[in-house]
Each structure stands twice: as C-alpha cells, then as structure tokens.
Amino acid sequence: MPRYRLTLAYDGTDFVGWQKQEPPMDSLQPAMLAQSSKHATHSQEAGEERERVSLRTVQQAVEDAVRQVVNQPISIVGASRTDSGVHAWHQTAAFTCEGAPGWNRPPDERLALAINARLPEDVMCRACVRTRDDFDPIGDCIGKGYRYSFHNGPDRPLWDRRYVKHVWSRLDETAMNDAARVLEGEHDFAAFAAAGHGRESTVRTIFECRVSRESERVDVHVSGNGFLWNMVRIIAGTLMEVGLGKKRAEDVKRAVETGERRLAGPTVGAEGLCLMWQKYPEDPA
After folding, report:
1. Comparing 18-22, 104-108, 198-202, 203-207, which segment has the lowest mean pLDDT?
2. Beta strands at 143-152 and 123-131: parallel, antiparallel or unpaired
3. CA angle, corner 176, sides to 175 and 179, nearest 5?
4. What Cα–Cα distance (Å) separates residue 93 from each residue in 59, 74, 167?
5. pLDDT tens, 59-113?
6. Contact yes or no for 248/239 (Cβ under 8 A)
7. What is the DSSP string of 59-116?
8. Active site residue 133
9. Which fold has domain 143-279?
10. How do beta strands 143-152 and 165-167 pair?
11. What CATH number labels 3-39+48-131?
12. Same fold flag, 3-39+48-131 and 143-279
C-alpha cells in the first residue's frame, strides 16, 4: 500500500495539542470544553449512557480531512507531539492507504489540495508526497528545530499577539546569545525538563542555540536530536531571565551541570513556541 508523507502547518492557539485525546466528561475543565467537539460515541457506566467529548487536536483534524479524501480508515502519525497552544510551520506526518473504489490515486499536488479543502482554517497541508513504505516520522527523524519568540517593548503586541510572549523590560539579546551557546552539545538536560517527562534518559544533543533580535522581536532558535517535555520553553524562560539580568551564562552552565530544575528559568507560555522543521536521512542536505 502506498505511504504518504505530509508537511503540515498550524496555528495551535485553539487546539489542545497534536495528539488525539478523549477524556471522560467529568474530567474536563471549562477551557477544555471550549476546545472540544461532541460526537456520537457513548459508553455504559453505572447504568447510564454518558456522552464523551473529543478534544480538538491537530491529529484528529488531519485524520478527518484525509479520510474524507481517500474514503477509507487511515491513521496519521506525527513527528512531534506539540502541546496545547504550540504552533508549527513544519510538522511531518504520514499515513498509509489503499486506492478506494473510484479513486485512482491523484497526483501528490492534487491530493494536497483535496486535503486542504477539508481542513479547518487553522491547519494547512503544505505538501503531500509518496514516500517509502517503512517511513516513520518519529523514529526516522534525525533532527528538529524550534523557535521561541518574544515581543520586547512597552507596547503590547497586536497583530502577532497569538504567536509571541510579551516582555515589557528590555532584553539584552547579546547576553542571551552568550548564555545560549552554553547549551550547545550533548548534555544531561534534567534541569530543563518538566516533572513527569516520562523519559528514561534526559541526555540530549543541542546542535545550535542562538538568539536574534529584529526591532521588538527577539527570537530563540534551538535545534537538536530530540527534546524533553517543555524543554524548549524552559530554555527560552532561562534565557529570558538572562536577558533581564536575573541570571548569567554561568548560572545556566551550573543548571546544566547539576541537573537541578530550580536553577533554570520558568516555563514560558506556549504561545511563543513554533516547531520549524524536522530532518530525515533522505532529505536534501
């Protein structure tokens, strides 16, 4: 059966993340209910029929669109399980399907157009191409990059308010960039992981960590072979404190060396984080 590789972009503001979720009704908070859609699945519990809710996720939205196009059950696998509110410019995903009756496997560009026509306005299929039958978006990924964006200035952001964290006080981007370089290389990033990250090892390799400024926009660019839960947001929060003069590069180095979470900075909001790219062995250099 043919396998297809998708390149997706999405505004994560109104999603509870990438991964499909279907919690019990009594566990939902009002904010979650606002980002969910009821469907016709029911379960018998204590003799009563209880309605369940599918939280609004990118994975579910893409699966629904692709199923409508290929007219058969399919499962979408994504490279990165972005959290609630996190955006993506380049999320890699894949699915396998058979040619359904009356469907002659349209060319890749037509398939992408057909999927886009069925996606909600905050998700876009940037590409859909045939790939090798054993392509695994998760296991085959050899690198990925994120960007965290700050709006730095006294005036609150307007047009890009959904995609940046507002910091009023002046950030020293030079000090931030010097501290960012401390994180490059292979290290134990236990100090930069959220509690309950669920990974056996907290050792990761950061290929590059840089900070740049353009006018009121300060961006933290981070790439590596993999990331722990909230790792990039904690890195951004730590560098923010360096930019505000609350920490120094030496403090960042000590956090890495000791693995103590309290020595790193806060976990900044999801709104400023965007998944920018993933790389695979077959991709052009």
Report:
1. 104-108
2. unpaired
3. 85
4. 9, 12, 34
5. 999 999 999 999 889 999 999 999 999 999 999 999 998 765 555 566 677 889 9
6. no
7. HHHHHHHHHHHHTS----EES--PBTT-EEEEEEEEEE----TT-----HHHHHHHHH
8. no
9. Alpha-Beta Plaits (3.30.70)
10. parallel
11. 3.30.70.580
12. yes
Buried b (16+ CB within 10 A) or exposed e, 208-227: ebebebeebebbbbbbbebb
Q: Which two tokens stand for residue 207?
A: 């290929």
Give the residue among 140, 98, 87, 37 at the shortest CA–CA distance from 275.
87
230 token code pair: 């909230």
Q: Which pTM was predicted?
A: 0.87
Read off the pLDDT of residues 119-128 as tens digits, 9 standing for 90 and up. 999 999 999 9
Written as six digits, the tokens of 227 are 């990331």
Tell me if 197 sits within 8 A of 229, measured CB to CB: yes
Q: Which of 11, 26, 64, 83 is flagged as catalytic?
A: 83
Instruction: Region of 47 please: left (phi>0), alpha (psi -120 to 50) or beta.
Output: left
